[in-house]
Amino acid sequence: MADDLNTEAPLAVGTGKAQRLASLIVAMRWVWPVVTLALLAVAFIGLTKISFDPSARQFFSEENPDRVALDAFEAEFSKDDNVMIVLVPKDGDVFTPEMLALQGRITECAWQLPYVRRVNSLTNFQNTSAEGDDMLVRDLVPDLPYGAQQPGAACDLASVDASAVSPETAAAAREIATSRVELVNSMTSATGHVAQVQVLFKLPQVDKAVEVPTVVREAFVLRDAIEAAYPNVDVKLSGSTVINNQFAVSGAEDGSTLTPAMFIAILLIVGLMLRSVVGVAMTLIVIVVSALCGMASLGWTGTALNSVTILAPLMISILAVASAVHVLASVRQTMAETADRKEWARRALSEHMAAISVACITTAIGFFSLNFSISPPFRELGNVVGFGVLVSWFLNLTLLPAMITFLPMKQRQDTSSARKWMVALGEFVVVNHKAVLPVSLFVVAGLGFGVTKLVAEDDFIRYFDERYEFRTDTDFIEENLTGLNLLEWPVDSGEDQGINNPDYLAKVAAFADWLRAQPEVTYVRSVTDTIKRLNMNMHGDDPAYLRLPETREEASQYLFLYELSLNYGMDLTDQINVTRSALRINAAMPFVTTEQMRGIMARADAWFAANAPELQTTPTGLSYVFSLISHRDVRAMLSGTVVALVLISGVILLVLWDWRIGLISLVPNLVPALMGFGLWGYSVGYVTLAIAVVIAATLGIVVDDTVHFLMKYKTARRKGLSPEDSVRYVFDRVGMALLVTTLALVAGFFVLSFSGFAVNGDLAKLTLITIAFALIADFFLLPALLIPLDNMSRKTGAKMMTNGVAKKGAAAVAVLVTAAVVALLSGKAEAQTAEAKGLAIAVEADKRDLGWGDQTVNGAMVLRDARGTESRREFRSLNLEDQSPGNGDKGIIVFSTPRDIRGTALLTHSKIEPADDDQWLFLPAIKRVKRISSSNRTGKFVSSEFSYEDLGSQEVGDYDYKHLKDEPCPGEAGLTCFVVESYPKNPRSGYSKRVGWIDTDHYRLYKIDFYNRRGEQEKTLTFAGYKQYLNQYWRADVLRMENQQTGKSTDLVWENYEFRTGLKERDFDSQVLPRMAR
Amino acid sequence: MWRRIALASLALCAAAPASAEKPTGGLVPGHWEFFGQAEVELTAFAESPAFAGQAHHDASVALRPTLLAEWLDGNLAFKLTPFLRLDAADDRRTHFDVREAKLDYRTDNWAFTVGADFVFWGKTEAVHLVDIINSDDGVESLDLEDKLGQPMLRATRFSDFGAFSLYYLPYFRKPTFPGVDGRLRGQLPVDMGAVDFRNDGDEWAPSFALRWAHVIGDVDFGISGFYGTSRDAAFEPTNFTALGQPTALKPVYDTIAQVGFDGQYTSDATLWKLEAIGRQGQLDRNGEATNYVAITGGLEYTLFGVADSNADLGLILEGSWDSRGDAALTPFEEDAIYGMRLALNDESDTSVLLIGTTDVVSGGTSVRLEAERRVFGSWKAEVEAQVFVNPQRSDLEYDLRRDSFVRLKLSYFW
Hints:
Chain A is an alpha+beta fold. Chain A contains 28 helices and 24 strands.
C-alpha cells in the first residue's frame, strides 16, 4: 500500500490549515470516544424503534398513481390476500374418491387458519343444475362427513374417509370440473392432475410484521401435515400472501447470511493490507458504529425496515471501509519513520482529510439523490446510507485517529513491493497513451451500445431466485395450473344495478372471450360465465341456453336466486361491487414478461376503443403496478441523477479549481455507468427497477477515485512536472491506494450480489461492475485524455487560482451542500345512511362536473365594506381539469385592474388535501416568477371575504359529509335541495363545518353557510344566475359571500365562459407563466 | 429643467388607456392594448453632499408607456415599452431607454424572441448573483432592479424536463451611472463617454447565454451559463488634471464566463433559497482579471395573518459571500441581510419592505425601506428610504455616507 510520501504537500487544498485541524483533532483525542459513545446511545434508542414491514407493496409510495388506482379497486371489490395450496398426487389424478375426500378435509382445515375469509376448492365449488323449473345450487362434492373440528385443534387429516365419496360422485365431479371455464386452469388442470385449495384472508393490517408470517407459518404446518399423512401427494404453496412473506424471508436471509460473509471479506482485505489485528479491530469499530447510526435514523424517522433497506448497514460498512483504509494505510507509511503515535494520526489526518471529506460528501450526495425515486424503499435506502456515510466520515476523521493514538499497533518497517507494479502500469499508459485513447474509446462505445439491449423486467415472483422453495413451487404452479400474474379490469357500467343490463353483459362477456383467446392468458374469471350457466340451468339445462339472458329482469333474478342459495363465505362480492354497477374481470398469465404484459394491456385498450368505448377502463392489479414501476422510476430518477451529477461535479470543480480538468473528470465519472449498463445489456439483458437508482448511487462512489487521481495530478503539475511525468507520479503515489480501495468496494458489493432477491442482487451487481469499470477508466482513459489535452492547453498558459480562495470556496460549498441535503431530506367509513348519502351526493355532484376539459372566464371581484364602499378587481381565469389521482385542477389568474397590478398572475397546481397546492406568482415589473408558499388556507384572498381555502379547487376527498334533510332551495323555491353538512379533513382549515344546499335535479350549489372554528356561523355564500354549458356543466354567474360578523361582502361575478379552448398542460407550466400573463 | 418637467406632465395628461379586442386573422392584431405609468418623484437627502457639484435635493418625472399587439390567438406578440426620465438635478439621470421592443412567438413547446427585452433569473431577495442578461440602469435606483433593455435572439424549449433557453446577445448595453451632479455615487464620477473594452472588442462583441430551469416537486431550480462581455464594470481613473489628479472614472469591461445555480425549496411557509456563481475573467477593484465564486442564500418565512389580522409578515434572512473579499466590486462581499416584508392584504395592497444589510467584517450597515399603497383607484404612492450607518473606509458604501435619503413617488397607471 503506497500512498503519499511525507515529503510533499499532499493535496491541492491548503496544507497549513489541514495540519492545524489535524493537531486539534489529535489533541482532543479523549473527546472522540465519549462523543462516539453518546452517538451510540442515541443510536440504540433509535434502533429499538425500528419496525419491519415487508411486502410487495413497499415499492409503491402512497402517491404512486398506479398504487392509488389499485387501492381504490381493492376497496371496491376485495383485496386478494391468498394462499394457494396446490395438491399434486403422484398418480396424476385428483378426482379419485380418496383425493376428493382429502380436498374436502383440507377445505375444512383451511378454515382454521388465522384471519381466513373464504376457502375455495373443487369440493365446495358452487355447482348449479336444473331441478324442474328451479335451480339447484350444491357443492360439487356434496355431503362430505367433515366431522366436528374443534376450533384451534390440529386438523385431523389421517382419518379422511374415502368411502364418503362414491365413484359415481367422483366421476361426475371430474366431468364437471374439467369442462368448466370457471375451473379449468384455475382450480384444476384440464387433465385433472393438480388441484388447488385457495384460501383467502382478510388481514387486519394492524401489526404487519406479524400477520403475514403467522398466516404463512400456519399454512406450512398444514402442508407438512398433508404430506405426512399422504406421502404420495406433493403439496405446493404459493399465492400473494406467500409472496409477501417471501419479501420478509429473503430480507432476513440476506441479513443473516450476507452480513457475516461481507465482514469476513472486508476484514480479510483490510487485514492483508494492513497486517495488523488492531488495525482491523479499529476498522470494525468504525464501520459497525456507522452502520448502527445509519440504521438508527430509520427508527428515529419512524420508517419501517424492508427487504431493500435491510442491506443498508452492509452498504454503509463497505463505504466506510474505503475511508478507513486511507487513514490506516497512511499510518503504515509513517510508522517506518517515527514511533510517535500522535504523529501517525496527525499526518494521516492532514494528508487525507480533504480527500476523505470529498469522497464522503459526494457519496452521500449520490445516495441522498435517491430521494428522487418514486419507490420508497430506495428513498429510504438512499437516506440511511447517505446518513451512515456522513457518520463514517465523522468517525474516520475523529474516532479512528484517536484510537490510533491509544491502541497498541505494532510498528512495522517493511514497505510494499507492489508499488513497482503500479509504476510499471503508469509507464505503460504514458508510453502508449496515443494507442490507449482510441482503444478505450472503442471499448466504451462498444460496451455502451449494449445499453440499447436493456429491457425492464419486473416480475415480482421472479425477483426471488430458485434457491427459495417459494419460487420452485410457484414455477410449478405456473407450468401446471395457472398464472400468478393477474391483470384486473374493473368494468363500470356507469349506473347502479347496471351489471344486469344485457348490452353491458354482452360486451363484458365478449371482452372475457377475447381475453381468453390471447396466447399469454391461461385463465379468465368473469361472472358472465356464471350468468350464462344460470340461464341454461333455468331452462332445464338445455345447452342451447348456455348464453346470456336476454332481459335485465332475467339476469337480475338469476343472480339473486343464485346468491340466495350460496353457502356461507361463497358470495360474489369480490366480483361485483356494492352498487352493482361494475364487474371485475381478471386474467391470469404464467411466465409473462413485463413487455408481454404491456402488450396485452395495449391490445385490451384497443379492444375497448373498437368494441366498447363507453366501458374503456384501465387495468390494475399488483402485476400491472409492477409492470410500470421501472418505467416510472427511470424517468423520476433521471432528474435525481442529473441533480446528483451537477452537485457532485460542482464539488469536484471547487476542489480541483480548474474548469478544464473538472470537465475532463466528467468522462471517467460517467463512462463507468455506461459501460456497466452496456455489459449488463449484452450479458443479462433485463433489469429490475434497481437500475433506475444505480447511476445516482454509484456516481458518488466512482468519483472518489477520480478525485484522488486528479488531486495528485494537479499537485504534480504545480510542482512543474510535465503531464506525462505527472501521470507517472500519480501511479506511483496513489495507484496502489486506488486499487486496494476499489478492491475492497468490489469485494463488498460482490458479497451483496449473492442476494437471492433480484432487486438487491441487481443493485449490487450493477454497482460492483460500475465501480470496477471506474478504476479501469481512471487508470487508462483518464491519463490518455489528460496528457494530450493538458499538453495542448499548456501553451495557452492558463492561470491557477490561489489556494486560499479555493479552500474558502470549498468550505462554503460543503456547508451549503450539507444544508441542501438537509433540505432535501426534510421534505417529507363505514357509514350510517346520513353519512353515506352525504358522500353519495358529493360524489354525484363531483361526477357531473367531470370532463369539462379546460375553460377561460373573465371575473370581477367587487369588495364592499359595511358602509357600502366598493372596490373592484378584474381578472381573467384560465383553468385546466386534472383527473389524475392526488392532483386537483390547475388554474391561472391574471389581473387586469387595478391598473398597477395589471399583468400580475397567479398559477396554482391544486393538490388533494391535506397536501399544499403548488403556487407561483408572476411579477411583470421585474419579470420574476416566484414560487410562493400556499400553506395559508384561512387568509383572505386580496382582502375579499373569500379565503384561499374557499377559492381553492374543491375535491370530494377534502371533506367528510352528512346528509341532513331535503327542503326547498334558498332563492329558488321551485327546486328541492339536499342539505348536506361537510367537515373539512384538514386541521388547518378555517372552518369547523360547512352546510351546503344542493338541488336534487342538477346537483348545483345554491348556498353554503360557513361555520368558523369556534362553531359560530361566520359567512354565507349564495349562488345565482346558473347557466348550462356544453349541455352538461352548470356555472353560476354571481357568487356573493357575506360575512355576518363584519357586515362586509364580496361579489364574484363571472362572464364570458368559454370551454375547451385548447389549453394544454404545458400552458400551466411555471416556466410558461410569463407568456400566459399578458 | 422645470420646463421639461412641465412638458412631461402635459404628455402624461394626454395619455389615455386604450385597448381593443378584435377577431383574429390577417395583419390586424387580434388584441391590442396601450397602457403604462407616469410618475413624479421627490428625493430629499438628510445631509449636505460629500462631493463638490452634487445636488442637495432632487425632483424627477418618468414615463413608461407600453404598446402591446397580439396575433394568432396571442401566440405572436409585439411589445414596445420606451422609458423616459427627466431629472432636475442630474443630467445623467435624464435619460431615455427602450425597455422592451420585441416580437415573441410561441408554439406549444417552443418560444422565440427577437428584439430588446429584460429577463430576470434568480431566487434570492437582496443579492441577484445569477441574473446577468441585462445591464443595470444604475441611475434609477440603488436596488439594481431597473435594467436596460437588452437586444437578443432567444429560443426556449419547454419540456417535461424543464425549460431550456438559449440566448444570443449581439450588443452590449453600457450600464448607467450617476453624473457629477448626482448623489449616490462614488467620489469620482463615472465618465460615461469614456469606456475601455479589454477584450479588444466594442459594444458589438456578442454574448451568449443558456439556462435550464425546472421544477421537481417542491424544488424550483435553474442552471445557467454565460459567456461574453461582463455586465459589471471595473474602473480606471481618467481625465487627469494638470497636477495628475484624476477627475473621473472610466468603466472597463472584459470577457467573462459564468456558470450559475439558483434554487428554491418551498416547505410550508418557509422558502429556502440559494444562488451561487463561479465567474472567470472578471476585472476586480484593482483592475485585475480574477476568477471567483460568490454565494448567496437564506430563507424567507411567512407568518400568515399576524395578530389575527389579514396581514402577512414575511421574515427574510440571507447571507452573501464573495471569494474576492474587499477586492469585489459589489457591496455584498461578506454580508448578512435581514428584513421583513409586511403585506396588509387590504383593498389598497399596502405593503412595507424593511431590509438591512450588514457587512459582517467591517460592520458597515445600510437599512432600506420601501412602502407602497394604492390611492385614488389608479394611483400608487411609494416611499423609498435608505440610511447608511457607520460605513467603513473599506466598504464601497463609504462614498455614500452622507447620502441617506427619503424619496416619495406618486405614479399614475392607465
